[in-house]
């Protein structure tokens, strides 16, 4: 028997394949690989959040919650969104899920018909293509500018068609760390109204910014709240990747449909995890601020280190914890270089093409990894690229 067409073209996230390959190299050689492939903070979850989770379990928050989330967490998210995005947001417009991913995936399923077109950044987070294919829709990757900050806007405008139903934005972005400028967001907002498409803005890295206090959001542009889904979460900001907790803010009529999809798929998000989420959003931010300072100094280390390697160019990423650097001058594909770096140099980074065809010529390094691995990784990249 066969599997369904809807899963025929699905691919994994490249990070998982490189993680497995790096572990294999470690086993085979008995040597440690500098692990710079995965976008996962190595800091522990802050103690006050852990304690809130433990208290939630001990006090019996271990039963089903409403499929769209616990009321106190929806209230905390609504207040946080109102404060950080400057647009009044109500708890009824919030849906809680096990991570930001369900906020992306299930809203796409709720909005898009087979044959509709979905536009998303190239290079971009692989889930955007996967959710588009699962919905039976047509992926329309939009090239980013070479510095990775924003869409090539002229191409974006050309790619809009009567079938365009949804545009996905990701700022600060994975894999480039780019932050989209306000004027491009305003133009996309105008086009969204003219061509009547929805916008998902994936702002999972909204707190990880190094040069400006907050990134412009399309959700904040007047008239956009009605057609925007704002996705954000806890994984990156509060080092909670394994807790599985995130949220999406959307027009109330859409929450009803997404709640049905949650009801029949995951049921609800773990209730005690949601208790920890309230503590994360309402508690002290000292750990978070310290972590941002740490990432800022690692960013400096990485950008300087990479740019000092002959043949490598690395733009300064304004946010997230990735450096997306240009290695096209070596005349090999991104995949060939990343393989060499892993096998010969014992350093794991991702080929840019894991994020779309337009990532060719680039590699992604995650500086969420510990500083000693970053330092070792940079030395190994330098010595391996020298041999090419
Ligand atoms: N969106 C982007 C751009 C990401 O990079 C990630 C994680 O790598 C996610 C969403 C998923 O986050 P979560 O762990 O909350 O599902």
Automatic annotation (TrEMBL):
The keyword Zinc does not apply. It comes from the Eukaryota. Residues 32-381 form the Aminotransferase class I/classII large domain. SUPFAM superfamilies: PLP-dependent transferases (SSF53383). Its cofactor is pyridoxal 5'-phosphate. InterPro entries: Aminotransferase_I/II_large, AspAT/PAT-like, PyrdxlP-dep_Trfase, PyrdxlP-dep_Trfase_major, PyrdxlP-dep_Trfase_small. Belongs to the class-I pyridoxal-phosphate-dependent aminotransferase family. This is Aminotransferase class I/classII large domain-containing protein. It comes from Rhodosorus marinus.
């Amino acid at each position: 028997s066969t599997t369904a067409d809807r899963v025929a073209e699905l691919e994994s996230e490249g990070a998982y394949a490189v993680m497995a390959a790096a572990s294999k190299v470690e086993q085979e050689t008995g040597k440690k690989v500098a692990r710079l492939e995965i976008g996962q903070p190595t800091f522990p979850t802050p103690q006050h959040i852990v304690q809130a989770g433990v208290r939630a379990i001990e006090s019996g928050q271990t039963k089903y919650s409403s499929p769209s989330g616990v009321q106190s967490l929806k209230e905390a998210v609504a207040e946080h969104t109102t404060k950080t995005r400057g647009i009044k947001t109500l708890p009824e417009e919030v849906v809680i899920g096990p991570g930001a991913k369900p906020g992306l995936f299930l809203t796409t399923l709720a909005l898009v018909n087979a044959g509709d077109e979905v536009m998303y950044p190239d290079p971009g987070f692989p889930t955007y293509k996967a959710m588009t294919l699962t919905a039976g829709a047509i992926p329309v990757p939009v090239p980013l500018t070479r510095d990775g900050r924003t869409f090539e806007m002229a191409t974006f405008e050309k790619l809009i068609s009567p079938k365009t139903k949804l545009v996905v934005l990701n700022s600060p972005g994975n894999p480039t760390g780019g932050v989209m400028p306000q004027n491009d967001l305003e133009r996309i907002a105008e086009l969204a109204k003219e061509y009547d498409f929805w916008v998902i803005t994936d702002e999972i890295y909204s707190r990880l910014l190094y040069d400006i206090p907050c990134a412009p959001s399309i959700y904040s542009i007047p008239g956009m709240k009605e057609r925007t889904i704002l996705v954000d979460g806890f994984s990156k900001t509060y080092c909670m990747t394994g807790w599985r907790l995130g949220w999406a803010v959307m027009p109330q009529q859409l929450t009803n449909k997404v709640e049905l999809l949650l009801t029949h798929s995951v049921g609800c998000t773990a209730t005690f995890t949601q208790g920890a989420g309230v503590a994360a959003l309402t508690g002290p931010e000292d750990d978070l601020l310290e972590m941002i300072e740490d990432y800022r100094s690692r960013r400096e280390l990485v950008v300087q280190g990479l740019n000092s390697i002959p043949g490598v160019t690395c733009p300064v990423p304004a946010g997230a914890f990735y450096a997306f650097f240009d290695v096209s001058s070596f005349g090999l594909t991104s995949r060939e270089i990343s393989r060499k770096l892993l096998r010969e140099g014992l350093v794991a980074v991702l080929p840019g093409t894991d994020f779309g065809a337009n990532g060719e010529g680039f590699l992604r390094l995650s500086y969420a990894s510990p500083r000693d691995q970053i330092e070792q990784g940079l030395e190994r990249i330098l010595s391996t690229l020298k041999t090419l």
